[in-house]
Amino acid sequence: MSTTVVNGVNVQALLDAREVLKGAPEAAQFVWRASSKWQKGVHSTTTIQNFFGLGEEQTHKSESVFDADHPAVFAAEDNGITPIEYLLVGLASCLTAGVASVAQNRGIQLRSVESTVEGNHDIRGILGADSDVRNGFNDVKVTFTIDADASKEDIEALVAQSQKRSAVFDALTNPTNVTVEVA
Amino acid sequence: MSTTVVNGVNVQALLDAREVLKGAPEAAQFVWRASSKWQKGVHSTTTIQNFFGLGEEQTHKSESVFDADHPAVFAAEDNGITPIEYLLVGLASCLTAGVASVAQNRGIQLRSVESTVEGNHDIRGILGADSDVRNGFNDVKVTFTIDADASKEDIEALVAQSQKRSAVFDALTNPTNVTVEVA
């Protein structure tokens, strides 16, 4: 059935990669990289192009540059979205990619997939106004609206499987060791 | 001394906000939002413009749209960076904004702030090749190169204080509850 649906995901390549990487764990070690440069105030630009994977240097087909800043309500120039909003971009896009991949694998034709993400954030933490308030999100909610050739139950199962395999969902819901150094 | 340095951060506004929000915790409750739309394959576009804070609806001065996709090595079209790379953009920009803010507050003139971020990622997790491998990053490393009117020790203290107050550093190093629903 999966060959008759057209979601645009090459699931066979992913299934093949899974089998190959089972026997070649060193090829599965990826390093994603970003380079950031302070502009002025709290405005910075971050560039992404190269990464490492499958045992060698890789490159995206083009360089991507992202502006981050604070909005006017924080007395800044709003030259880009805030850093924490980038986490919502990553979460929404990761879960959406997962929905498309799982749908392809299960032979479900998607017509549209939309989602909204809301991150609740008590900014007293980052301002140092209350040491009992954490710096990050209090919690995050993602709501999908999906039109597909499938039952409500099958669509819910799609989303659940996407969540189970999502890199960004894991990175936000479980702790990761982050080391910060000065060169 | 802080009035003589020009890093472009309005620290007084932030210090004033801290005092005001100590007595008005409801105004400190922000909601950051993103809307995402599946395009084709694992390509999606995510839009950010509006958020809630200081008790009312707020808007960024312009709408920002972000493409996410998988690279050619995952048999995709590479129409944007991968979802997990967006976490690196958020981390670098958050820590950089913090360095600028703390420097302004401490009267340290910055000349340049650059950073590189590396996220190590064993992709056997997301591919389902090994259930003992997590989906997210194994670990992340940030390296700052800072040119400023300050000693190495003062620069290291700047970075340490930025880390201590960083929303994104907290969101990656500590767990957050994320709910995913189908409308």
Structural class assignment of chain A:
alpha+beta
Please report the total strand number of chain A as a whole number. Answer: 6
Radius of gyration over C-alpha positions of chain A, nearest whole angstrom: 19 Å
Chain pair sharing the greatest interface: A-B, 127 and 127 residues
Number of discrete helical segments of chain A: 5
CATH superfamily of the largest domain in chain A: K homology (KH) domain
CATH topology of the largest domain in chain A: GMP Synthetase, Chain A, domain 3
- Please outline the major beta sheet of chain A: 3 strands, antiparallel
Please indicate the percent range of residues of chain A in DSSP E strands (runs of 2 or more).
35-45%
The average pLDDT value of chain A, as a whole number, equals 95
Adjacency order of strands in the biggest sheet of chain A: 1-2-3
Low-confidence stretches of chain A are: none
The gross shape of chain A turns out to be globular
Order of helices and strands of chain A: HEEEHEHEHHE
Supply the CATH class of the largest domain in chain A.
Alpha Beta
Q: Give the termini separation of chain A.
A: 54 Å
- This entry's quaternary arrangement is homodimer
Write the CATH architecture name of the largest domain in chain A. Answer: 2-Layer Sandwich
Pfam family, one (chains A, B): OsmC
Organism (chains A, B): Kribbella kalugense
Protein name (chains A, B): Putative OsmC-like protein
Features:
homodimer, 183 residues, alpha+beta, GMP Synthetase, Chain A, domain 3, 3-stranded antiparallel beta sheet, 5 helices
